[in-house]
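Bug #77: duplicate submission created two jobs. Keeping one. Sequence:
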Amino acid sequence: MFGLKPLPVILATVAFFFVGFLWYGLLFTEMWMAAEGLTEEDAGSPVWMIGGLIITFMQVIGIGLVLKWKNVSGVNDAVMTMLTLWLLIALPFTAYAFVYLPAHSLPLLMIDASHLLVGWVVSAIILTIMK
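Kept job's structure:
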C-alpha cells in the first residue's frame, strides 16, 4: 500500500471509523441530524457505511503518505502535521457546505470539521507509533 505497512493502516482506519461512530452515532447524533434536517426515518441503508469505510481508508493512506514524505519521527510531529493539514485542507473543505448551502449551519461545520480533526490525529498517532 504505497510503501505503508498494512497493519497500521488497517488499525488506523478502524480507529478513525470508530471516531466517526462516536461523533455521528453517539456524541452529536441529535445535533448533527437537526443541522442536516434529518429524522430517524431518513437514516440511510447500512450499506452506505461501506462507502464511508472506503473513504476513511483512503484518508488514512493519504495521512500515512504525508507522514512518510515528511519523515515524521515522533507523535508530537505527527500531531502538529495533522493540525496544520486540518487547518489548511480539511477545515476549508468542510467550510464549503457552510458557505454555499442555504442553512449556513455552524453546528454542522463544527461537527464535521472536528470529526476530521480527531480522526486525522488519531490515525497519525497510530501510524507513527506503529511504523
